[in-house]
Amino acid sequence: MLLAAGVLSALAFAALPALASADEFQAHCEGAATCTGEITGGVAELRNSGGEVIKCTGLTGSTGFTSTTTTGTASFIFTGCREQVTIFKFQCRTPGSTNNGEITVNNLTYHVINLEHTPTTKPGIKFTNVSVTFTCAGFSDKTVTGSVVGTIEESNTVCEHEMSTMAVTFEESATQGTQKWTQTETTGTKTDLISNNDAGGAYSTSAQVGTGIIHWNHPVRVTC
């Protein structure tokens, strides 16, 4: 998911100037200088334009940010991951993992962004620096790189409201292997996930599908 998810593990916000650009929103940690939390999630899928699917059954992670910033970093652990191409549904895992079916995605950067044109406000999350290689038994290694954009659920009520939990959902568009959201304010530079077969296969656009829920240790408020 980002491989969210996987879609969805530590978020540590990087310090930015107090004034954010019009297409990015600041997050505030109420009652503390830094907010931390845990990430949980269920089924997540990575789908590419060639019809290949990697399905994971669980997601864990942790998050944290410094108040009044718009960006940060993240890592995720997906569990129960299997390819869905063959009848065998081989387990997948990242190199160095001792657990079959476990895919770890580290060192992501994210931005809290506006998905729609101003003055419309639809807060979302853009994860960049995605770079993960994994192997499914019987297959060559796969590498996924690029960026992925998701929406904060109930985004119409997110602005200026204190939240103890935050759900971020990643969806596929009507075009196979393409994210539903690919731009900031629907006009910015398009972003996408790209996957390839390390044995020399062609690159394919890919979409992360799933939802990750952040459970904060202090209330979080987004200024839109």
Mean pLDDT metric: 84
Separate helix tally? 0
Name the beta content range: over 45%
Overall 3D shape: globular
- Which parts are unreliable, with pLDDT below 50 for 5 consecutive residues or more? 1-20
Helix content: under 10%
In N-to-C order, the SSE pattern is EEEEEEEEEEEEEE
> What gyration radius follows from the Cα positions, in whole Å?
17 Å
Termini distance?
27 Å
Query: Which class of secondary structure composition applies to the elements?
Result: mainly beta
Give me the count of strands: 14
Provide tags for this entry.
single chain; 224 residues; mainly beta; 14-stranded antiparallel sheet; globular; disordered N terminus
Quick synopsis:
The chain is mainly β and 224 residues long. 0% of the residues lie in helices and 51% in strands.
